[in-house]
Amino acid sequence: MSHQGAELVGRMAGGDRQACAAFYDGFAPLAYGLIRRILHDAPDAEEVLQEVFLELWRAAGQYDAARGTPAAWVVTRARSRAIDRLRSLRKRDEVVVDRLDTMTAETPSGRPEDPGTEVVDRHFVQGALARLVPAQREVIELAYY
Questions:
Q1: Tens-digit pLDDT profile for residues 66-103
Q2: Which of 14, 83, 27, 82 is nearest to 53 (CA)?
Q3: How far apart are CA 23 and CA 17, in angstroms?
């Protein structure tokens, strides 16, 4: 498949969609197996596989046979993207947000006991928001405002 793979990559660089489909059919099982070993979630692995082959389609003109076989090219991209996704998932799981009801001190009536506690609560909420990544902070701010 190595020589045939290189030929398919060349045709892909010229925009041949049928060559891309044949390349996918030949190399997707190899890439998917590697991605699944890194990412244990099938939907995540399938999404990464699609991203990898879209990237390969776009970068076909940059393929250099002197640097490795098409299989090595596919495996390198698949491994890299799977590790990127794994890191992204781990980072997302590390972000912990306290529940809003544990951040406020309210009486049974639902109103703060002392107007001064509203200022303290405001600072507490601002501190919690500051610890969020910008995208999460923006979602909360947009929902509130």
A1: 999 999 999 999 999 999 999 988 877 666 454 444 55
A2: 27
A3: 10
Place of tokens 């009801």: 101
Whether 54 contacts 100, CB under 8 Å: no
Query: Which residues, 6 or more positions from 26, have their beta carbon under 8 angstroms from its beta carbon?
Result: 1, 4, 5, 8
Q: What is the pLDDT of residues 46-70, one digit of tens each?
A: 999 999 999 999 999 999 989 999 9
CA-CA distances (angstroms) from residue 106 to 72, 125, 128, 140? Answer: 61, 15, 18, 21
Torsion sign (Cα): 110, 97, 137, 116: positive
Distance between CA atoms of 89 and 94, rounded to whole angstroms? 9
Helices (H), 14-130: 17-38, 42-59, 70-94, 115-130
3-state secondary structure of 133: coil
Give pTM, 2 decimals.
0.62
